[in-house]
Amino acid sequence: MKIMISTFFLIFSLSLGLHADNDESLSGKKVFETYCWGCHHQTAVAFGPPFSTIASERTTEQIQAMITDPKGVSKVLGYKRNAMPALKLTPVELDAITEYILSFREVK
After folding, report:
1. Which tens digit of pLDDT belongs to each residue from 7-56?
2. What CATH code would you report for 26-102?
3. Do residues 105 and 78 touch, judged by C-beta distance below 8 A?
4. What is the rounded (10 degree) CA torsion for 26, 30, 35, 38?
5. What is the DSSP string of 43-89?
C-alpha cells in the first residue's frame, strides 16, 4: 500500500512538472538552455555567434527564420555553410527564445 501511495505521488509530481513546461509563460532562458547552449553563448563567441551580436544585427523575423529554416536563410544571406540544425519549436518556444535573444540587443 505504501508503494502504491508513493507511486501515485511520484506520478502526480511529475505530471505537474510537465504541465509547467507547457505553460505559456515558458522562459526564453529555459529554451536557450535546452536547445542553444551547446553552440551559443549570450555575450561571448562560442561555436555560433553570441546573442548580443544576433540581436544587434537581425530582426525578429530573421531570427525566427534562422531558428526554423537555417539552410534557407543562410542561402538568402549568402553564407557558404551553416552548421545550425533546424529546430522544431512550438510557437510559444519560438517567441520565448526570440524575446530572450533580443533582450541582449545593445543600447546605443
Report:
1. 444 344 434 443 344 444 579 999 999 999 888 888 877 888 889 999 99
2. 1.10.760.10
3. no
4. 170
5. SS-SSS--HHHHHHH--HHHHHHHHH-HHHHHHHHT-S---PPPP--
